[in-house]
Design brief:
The protein is 29% helix and 16% strand. By secondary structure, the protein is an alpha/beta fold.
């Protein structure tokens, strides 16, 4: 059995199919960990979601910001598509409701305590341990499932910008979603900057990549994430960044989680979007 972590697919079904061939994926032995953003910006969001959904128990998938966006468009009130979205084929397909129901039930984080692996889409604030992250992710996901329309109505916004255990209701849900699906940089006290999209060296004063804070409570776990294409592939003993910019003309990447000596496996991608 092999466990492969795979970066942001973003609607690039053809590249994902090629990657599965490259790793010689076998359904009777292998497990695939997807770091979110299965859909949007690439040419085939419908096909990508169909392919991942069909993997069934072989796939562990966490929600990314683009996955939440398509759910909000379909299930939330008055949320429209944005410039650059490539979701119409999915939203107009007869299978859409079934696929989005499946997507809605994917978690915001996956914590494998036995292996000490935490899978998320974007980032963590310094105060969150792996255990706390898993607890908060379950709490917020439960609120999403209880009333999706209301949840997505109140999900958007950049406030609050700092974690506090006393946060409650929509503010608490929004902050947790923003950290897990949008965060790249923050301060040592957990103040987040959700607008920054550049390379780590371009971060604003007093902000660091979320994983560089020395007192980070999650540092004892291996955190696996995507979301940050300008960071690219980053492989450390307890950190694995996987967004290698497939949709921007980079590559789609898989890493064997149980063999640190094995090189990453990558499939080059067409530039379906221009980052500028």
């Amino acid at each position: 059995m092999a466990r492969y972590a795979i970066g942001d697919v973003q609607g690039c079904r053809a590249e994902l199919e090629q990657l599965l061939r490259s790793i010689e994926f076998k359904a009777d032995r292998d497990e695939l960990w997807f770091a979110g953003d299965i859909v949007n910006r690439g040419p085939d969001s419908l096909g990508a979601l169909q392919l991942v959904q069909a993997l069934d128990a072989n796939a562990i998938v966490v929600l990314g910001n683009h996955d939440l966006h398509v759910l909000a468009v379909a299930l939330g009130p008055k949320r429209g598509l944005k410039r650059g979205d490539t979701l119409l084929g999915l939203l107009e397909d007869p299978e859409c409701n079934k696929l989005l129901e499946w997507l809605l039930h994917r978690p915001l984080a996956h914590w494998d305590a036995a292996r000490n692996d935490l899978l998320i889409h974007a980032g963590l604030v310094p105060e969150w341990s792996a255990d706390l992250t898993a607890t908060l992710a379950r709490e917020v996901h439960a609120a999403m499932l209880r009333d999706p329309a209301r949840f997505f109505q109140h999900m958007y916004g950049n406030e609050p910008d700092r974690w506090r255990a006393t946060l409650h209701g929509d503010d608490r849900n929004r902050l947790v979603v923003n950290v897990l699906t949008r965060l790249r940089v923050c301060t040592a006290n957990g103040t987040v900057d959700l607008q920054f999209k550049g390379a780590p060296t371009e971060a604003p004063d007093n902000y660091l990549p979320w994983f560089e804070h020395p007192q980070r409570a999650s540092a004892t776990a291996r955190v696996i994430f995507g979301h940050w294409s300008t960071l690219g592939l980053l492989r450390r003993p307890r950190l694995l960044a996987l967004d290698t910019g497939c949709v921007w003309g980079g590559a789609l990447t898989a890493v064997d989680l149980d063999d640190p000596e094995r090189p990453p496996i990558q499939v080059p991608c067409a530039g379906y979007q221009n980052p500028h």
